[in-house]
């Protein structure tokens, strides 16, 4: 995760500036992200079960206190990535373990593409005209780096790879 080479200084600035506008209401913006995620892929809903309770609808899931806690955690991971743009490699082990946790509950690697689309959608809705093509590209690169680290949780790579 060589973030220095991954993102230019301008891209890091665009990410920080845009995240500052979004991070003040993490739950609200996280709801936009996950509403879009369930719109794009309703088959992901059964992955979110708490106390063996399966949700009948995305709306029921989105209003559950346990799911709102999940939204807060997702937004904290995004915040950590933004806070460590100069040194994303320090999050490598954490993100790899996060990937393992997602695999354990049945998330498919392919679903991260839909999550990425949902993240960009949320940013576009929340930022309006400030969501420029340059902002989109910067966030796409950052998200790609995060997913690459999380994907390692699915792979059994020898030490040092």
Describe the fold and architecture:
With 161 residues, this protein is mainly α. The chain is 66% helix and 2% strand. The protein has a two-stranded antiparallel sheet with strand order 1-2. Strand 1 (49-50) and strand 2 (53-54) form a beta hairpin. Helix 6 (92-104) crosses helix 8 (133-151).
In short:
The chain is 66% helix and 2% strand. The chain has 161 residues and is an all-alpha fold.
- Which structural class do you get from the secondary structure elements? mainly alpha
* Beta-strand content estimate: under 5%
Average of the residue pLDDT scores = 90
- By DSSP, the count of extended strands is 2
Main sheet strand line-up: 1-2
The CA-CA distance between the termini, in Å, is 12 Å
Helix-strand pattern: HHHEEHHHHH
So how many helices? 8
Major sheet description: 2 strands, antiparallel
């Amino acid at each position: 995760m060589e973030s220095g080479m991954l993102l230019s200084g301008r891209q890091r600035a665009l990410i920080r500036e845009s995240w500052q506008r979004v991070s003040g209401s993490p739950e609200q913006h996280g709801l936009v992200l996950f509403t879009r995620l369930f719109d794009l892929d309703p088959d992901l809903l059964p992955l979110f079960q708490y106390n063996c309770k399966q949700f009948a609808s995305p709306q029921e899931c989105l209003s559950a206190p346990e799911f709102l806690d999940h939204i807060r955690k997702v937004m904290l991971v995004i915040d950590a990535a933004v806070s460590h743009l100069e040194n994303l490699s320090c999050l490598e082990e954490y993100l790899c373990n996060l990937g393992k946790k997602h695999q354990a509950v049945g998330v498919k690697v392919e679903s991260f593409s839909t999550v990425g689309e949902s993240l960009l959608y949320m940013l576009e809705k929340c930022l309006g005209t400030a969501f420029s093509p340059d902002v989109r590209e910067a966030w796409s690169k950052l998200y790609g780096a995060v997913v690459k680290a999380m994907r390692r949780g699915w792979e059994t790579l020898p030490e040092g790879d």
